[in-house]
Design brief:
This protein has 221 residues and is mostly beta strands. It has helices spanning 11-17, 87-92, 169-173, 180-183, and strands at 4-7, 31-34, 39-45, 49-56, 74-76, 94-99, 101-106, 111-117, 123-134, 137-148, 159-161, 195-199. A hairpin with a 3-residue loop joins β3 and β4 (49-56).
């Protein structure tokens, strides 16, 4: 699964990497411990490619209230095209969720690890977004697609976020593509030999804790 991640790269740098035309509105601050229900930064294609903020935890357009989003932070690739909460967005509202790395807890010992790319490049998670009319106004929300863990990640967890390679980003974002048989093959494991992980302090478990020190390697007895 994917339940915590970091975002340190400035939105304008993301815009350059992913050919974004419409920049992010409002203020932005780096975040080192992003958790579900918080706002995340995404990229999508509509009339033009744009950055936007979305609540992490997808709320389907037909939802009675926002609580369903708490159980929709991740969309499994095996069922993303059939689950009622995700199937419409999968065909029509795909996005990138921006990240620099993510945290995962080793099973059994509950030791958190920070995972990033060896290249130092940003991660573009395969995401879906949705528009929901709440009693207090419109809400845009998103989810992160997950797949079976690759060889490296399987030492920590049985799932991992889908990290899209740069060459297929345009295809994933293209709103004219809605064929499930064309879309699902894009949701693959990222190569294990291009990723790295190390143990970090358990203070990352508290969502109130922030700062680059959360990503620092710690010794494990």
């Amino acid at each position: 699964m994917c339940g915590r991640f970091t975002l340190r790269t400035k939105p304008r740098e993301w815009a350059e990497v992913f050919a974004v035309v419409r920049q992010l509105e409002g203020e932005w601050q780096p975040a080192y411990n992003i958790a579900p229900t918080q706002n995340v930064v995404c990229v999508r294609d509509r009339d033009e490619r744009e950055l936007f903020k979305a609540r992490w935890g997808l709320i389907p357009s037909w939802a009675k209230d926002a609580k369903i989003g708490n159980s929709c932070i991740n969309a499994r690739v095996e069922t993303v095209d059939t689950q009622p909460a995700f199937r419409s967005a999968f065909k029509k509202r795909r996005c990138l969720v921006m990240a620099n790395g993510f945290y995962e807890w080793r099973r059994g010992v509950k030791q958190p690890h920070f995972i990033s790319l060896k290249s130092g490049e940003q991660m573009a998670f395969a995401g879906l977004w949705e528009f929901w009319k709440s009693p207090d106004g419109p809400v845009e929300s998103c989810t992160i697609c997950t797949t079976e863990a690759n060889e490296m990640m399987s030492e920590l967890h049985d799932r991992m976020p889908v990290i899209l390679p740069r060459p297929i980003v345009d295809h994933w974002l293209d709103p004219t593509v809605n064929d499930v048989d064309e879309l699902k093959p894009m949701l693959r494991q990222f190569p294990a030999d291009e990723m790295q992980a190390w143990p970090v302090g358990k203070v990352v478990g508290n969502v109130r804790n922030q700062g680059p020190e959360l990503m620092e390697r710690v010794a494990v007895a």
